[in-house]
Amino acid sequence: MTDRGLDRASVKVRPSIELQIEELILTGFPAGDRRRIGAAFEQELGRLLSERGLPAALGQGGDRPSLNGRSFEVQPNMGPEAVGIQVAKAVYGGFTK
């Protein structure tokens, strides 16, 4: 059996998490944009968690019945994808509270 050059001591394994958001309430946006906002939100939140890591408040696990995210500004003519990104940043910021 050969090692194939892999130094097992240097392999870093990232912890796996499951984050389930049952309901995200946004008011004042067209109902037709909800799927695009949701998809952009999911992608951006995943990126933030991957790049910045899991906030310490979530590291202990367990349910959080609610989360108050940070505020965000919506500019005129901002598309649903940009809104989803702003919402993800606000939610991620709320994890650190």
Summarize the structure.
By secondary structure, this protein is mainly α. It has three helices and no strands.
Basic shape: globular
Q: What is the rounded Rg?
A: 18 Å
Question: For the terminal residues, how far apart are their CA atoms?
Answer: 50 Å
What letter string, H or E per element, gives the SSE order?
HHH
Total tally of structural domains? 1
SS field, number of helical segments? 3
Strand composition percent: under 5%
Uncertain segments are: none
What's the story with the biggest beta sheet?
none
Mean pLDDT: 80
Find the count of extended strands (DSSP E, 2+ residues).
Answer: 0
Percentage of helical residues?
40-55%
**Structural class by sheet pairing and helices:** mainly alpha
Tell me the quaternary state. Answer: single chain
List the helices and strands and how they pair.
Layout (H helix, E strand, L loop, with lengths): L33 H19 L3 H4 L20 H16 L2
Detailed description of the structure:
This protein has 97 residues and is an all-alpha fold. The chain has one domain (26-95). Helices cover 40% and strands 0% of the residues. It is built from 3 helices and no strands. It has helices at residues 34-52, 56-59, 80-95. Helix 1 crosses helix 3. The longest helix is centred in the middle third of the chain and has 19 residues, at 34-52.
What are its keywords?
97 residues; mainly alpha; 3 helices; 40% helix; 0% strand
